[in-house]
Design goal:
The protein contains 23 helices and 14 strands. With 675 residues, it is of the alpha/beta class.
Length: 675
């Protein structure tokens, strides 16, 4: 089964090939001399012009080399000043906005390129199409427009089964007192448009469900209407090509739309997996990580690393606990050194840097092997160096902020006493005020029955640490407005394991009180493996987050080992049953039904009429309005992998936000509510 990311890449490749299928023998021969017997057509060399949003779509999944393989010689921003390049066609990839229409029309009027292949990221409204026609006709250049296509690709795919709408600060916008009904309607329509594009890329029409009363219900209602209208009224049903696929029709996914208010805690958690740690500490934007370091002299240096989808190490280790990843980096480094030593020995040189001085007296076979292996070894070295540098920076951050201790506290936060929290807040070794604020916010969210005096004591300790209290104040306001969801207001912080825990959750780092104590002697030449020895069995317990439990209910199944227990905490009862009860009150839609209707409440099981006979859906698309993160994504992927049979889940959100970004939104909302 193709992932969402693979489908988006295929759609972009078709667009770059002027909306025709790429050559069947692959793109790797583009630009190379045509070999004897090679029947591949010579590519049409072209320039690519995109706006900033579409640039982000492309750069998330394609590199410069990929563009070149698809016949793109130059790529430029629509808003930039560009010189004329005659006799060269141009592929435009832009949003369907009046501003983009005018800029494209101006380019055509200036005769910058030979022909114009205009592609819009989503559906172009008829009014804008007519406006485009008027502008190009007025300049007498409409004959140069070779194509106009709606691509339905207005979303980003940072992971194989993860997508983002790239709407910054959506949580803040939805909750802002200044948000008008018109502005809210516009935002909801943008979300619906992007979700329609995701579904069209997947060529599937799902069943839809959402909680009542908030933005998710508005999205569900309008998306159902849009899908229904498209199926019933479109002359060309864009989903029709999959209509005869009986297997696909029998495995229709469930689209679960959720509001971020449902679970604020997951956005504030400290993580212990490689990918989520990187996102928390350094952010991952457009699959790029930027790390700022300061040397002993105080000089600041910034280094950017590209996370490549073809990076086998990243694919294998992104969701693993960081100590295990560090050991794997060390193992990969040692394996590389052994292979490099063998190659240099055969070539008669001391290192790979001296390959230009290969001993020509060596046997032909040895030289051939050395030369053939060199490019692969060089690429591996660069990849290992990248992960080594990232891991080193993570280790420094763990040492400086005591992230291992914080994570261990949060693993069993529902059982922590006020005294242990206050002790952590007053610990001078924990220097980051934001980490302390996150700890207290999670402690409050995980314990509904806390006395006000206990909360006041924690807040006093936060103020003494110099914390900005605005985010916590706004969390209090939200909790007061959403008491009905209090049982799901925190992530799985105090509950039992979801079965099959890899190690004792309460003793994740118990065999050494803090990783920080093991870092003092770390240098570039030190072995990461020696630092993290004996931690292979000290892994975090697998716990199910609220979103995952709701998805489990929506898919109508239970996984082995009592999944759902992870929602239990000292303050809330059985999380799985809570999620099931909550799901029964969702609004439910099936866009394929002839008559439109709400299947909510006691009729929720009617939605499963389109599911397999056992009532369990095997595929789901989960979308959170207001922001998501890699912790939630990984939790859903773990649930899918543990299920029998294995389920297929796609996770998306209005944007992928780390804790710092989410706290900033909460802070601004609090200031707005006071003003």
């Amino acid at each position: 089964m193709e992932s969402l990311r693979q489908r988006q890449i295929a759609a972009l490749a078709r667009m770059l090939h002027l909306n025709s299928e790429p050559s069947s023998n692959g793109n790797e021969n583009y630009g190379a001399p045509e070999s004897k017997g090679d029947t591949a057509e010579t590519p049409i060399w072209k320039v690519l012009v995109f706006d900033s949003f579409c640039r982000d779509i492309v750069s998330t999944v394609l590199r410069v080399n990929d563009l070149r393989d698809n016949g793109v010689t130059m790529h430029m921003l629509l808003e930039s000043q560009r010189s004329s390049i005659p006799d060269v066609p141009a592929v435009y990839f832009v949003q369907p906005t009046p501003e983009s229409i005018k800029l494209v029309a101006d380019d055509i009027a200036r005769d910058l390129y030979e022909l114009y292949y205009v592609n819009f990221s989503s559906s172009l409204p008829r009014t804008l199409l007519e406006d485009f026609a008027v502008q190009t006709t007025a300049s007498g250049t409409s004959h140069q427009i070779a194509q106009v296509y709606d691509q339905y690709l207005n979303f980003l795919c940072p992971e194989e089964n993860m997508f983002s709408l790239h709407f910054s600060n959506a949580f803040e916008a939805i909750h802002s007192p200044a948000m008008t009904d018109t502005a809210m309607g516009t935002l909801i329509d943008k979300i619906v448009s992007s979700l329609f594009s995701v579904l069209l890329t997947l060529k599937t029409i799902p069943m839809i469900c959402a909680p009542r009363g908030n933005a998710a219900e508005m999205v569900a209602t309008r998306l159902d209407a849009k899908l229904r209208e498209h199926i019933m009224n479109s002359r060309h049903n864009l989903f029709a090509e999959n209509a005869d696929d009986v297997v696909a029709q029998s495995r229709r996914p469930v689209l679960v739309l959720l509001d971020r208010d449902l679970d604020l805690g997951t956005m504030l958690m400290h993580s212990w997996t490689y990918q989520a740690l990187i996102h928390d500490l350094y952010d991952i934007r457009l699959n790029q990580v930027s790390i700022t370091n300061a040397d002993d002299a105080g000089r600041i240096s910034k280094k950017a690393y590209d996370i490549n989808a073809t990076d086998a190490f990243w694919e294998a280790n992104a969701m693993l606990p960081f100590p295990e990843v560090a050991i794997n980096i060390d193992d990969a480094s040692n394996a590389f050194k052994r292979e490099a030593d063998e190659i240099t020995r055969m070539g008669g040189v001391k290192s790979l840097d001296e390959v230009s001085n290969l001993d020509m007296g060596a046997s032909t076979k040895q030289l051939q092997r050395a030369i053939t292996t060199l490019p692969e070894l060089t690429a591996r070295k660069a990849n290992i160096d990248m992960h080594m540098n990232i891991a080193t920076s993570l280790l420094d951050a763990i040492k400086d902020r005591q992230l291992d201790v914080l994570f261990q506290l949060e693993e069993q936060l529902g059982r922590q006493s006020k005294a242990s929290i206050i002790e952590a807040l007053n610990d001078p070794e924990k220097k980051n005020p934001q980490d302390k604020l996150r700890l207290v916010a999670l402690y409050i969210l995980a314990n509904d029955k806390l006395q006000q005096s206990d909360i006041d004591d924690c807040e006093a300790a936060l103020k003494a640490s110099g914390c900005n209290m605005a985010p916590l104040e706004y969390i209090h306001k939200l909790r007061n407005l959403n008491q009905m969801n209090a049982s799901l207001a925190s992530p799985a912080l105090g509950g039992g394991s979801t079965g099959g825990s890899a190690g004792p959750s309460g003793d994740l780092l118990g065999k050494f009180s803090s990783i920080s104590n093991r870092l003092a002697g770390f240098t570039d030449s030190s072995s990461l493996g020696s630092i993290f020895s004996n931690v292979r069995n000290l892994l975090p317990s697998r716990k199910q987050l609220p979103v995952t439990s709701i998805v489990e209910s929506a898919m109508g199944s239970r996984t082995p080992g009592g999944l759902g227990a992870g929602l239990r905490s000292a303050a809330s009862g059985g999380g799985s049953s809570t999620a099931a009860r909550m799901f029964e009150d969702f609004v439910h839609f099936d866009p394929k039904q002839t008559r439109r209707g709400n299947l909510a409440g006691s009729n929720a099981n009617a939605l499963r009429g389109s599911m397999p006979s056992d009532g369990a859906a095997q595929e789901a698309i989960v979308f959170v309005v207001g922001g998501g993160n890699y912790i939630e994504y990984q939790n859903l992927m773990e649930f899918a992998q543990r299920s029998t049979p294995r389920k297929h889940i796609i996770y998306g959100s209005t944007d992928i936000v780390n804790a710092s970004g989410f706290l900033a939104q909460l802070s601004r909302l609090n200031e707005t509510s006071l003003g």
